[in-house]
Specification:
Blueprint lengths: L1 H26 L5 E6 L2 E6 L3 H43 L5 E4 L4 E8 L4 E5 L5 E5 L3 E4 L6
Antiparallel strand pairs: 1-2, 3-4, 3-7, 4-5, 5-6
Helix pairs in contact: 1-2
Length: 145
């Protein structure tokens, strides 16, 4: 599911880039040159003013800021909030908590191994599993409690 969200955000980012490129292609002014013949030779003069080139640069900067803001709000900010929630979960886990792993295994934390950053879970049937601490998806509230 997380992969599908990332793909969707990536596609949305590409769409925004394509839209910005299309709009920018229409905003860039074309400069016309006129040839003037004088006694010393021909000189080229441009019809476009300095203000049109500065407005083009301003437009490009404005679109870059908009696209950067889209990427921040669609990709970076949600990832940071997920990381923060995961960090809060890891700090709140204690021995005796019933947890679920990212693989869907339910168990009770028996102890943590600080050196290898793993947890040992007591599962149904008396078995014990050693899992990476980051593989714990969340706490589970047992039914009836």
């Amino acid at each position: 599911m997380r992969n599908n969200r990332a793909r969707g955000a990536f596609r949305l980012g590409l769409l925004a880039l394509a839209l910005a490129a299309t709009v920018l292609a229409g905003c860039i002014p074309t400069t016309e040159t006129t040839n003037t013949t004088t006694a010393g030779g021909t000189t080229d003069t441009t019809v476009a003013e300095q203000t049109s080139s500065s407005s083009t640069i301003l437009t490009i900067v404005m679109y870059a800021v908009v696209i950067g803001g889209l990427f921040y709000f669609l990709l970076i900010r949600p990832q940071r909030t997920r990381q923060k929630k995961q960090q809060e979960l890891m700090s709140s886990l204690a021995v005796g908590d019933e947890v679920q792993t990212i693989g869907g295994i339910f168990g009770t934390i028996e102890y943590f191994d600080q050196e290898t950053d793993t947890a040992v879970l007591q599962v149904e049937g008396g078995g014990k599993l050693r899992v990476a601490r980051r593989a714990l998806a969340g706490k589970v509230t047992p039914k009836g409690r």
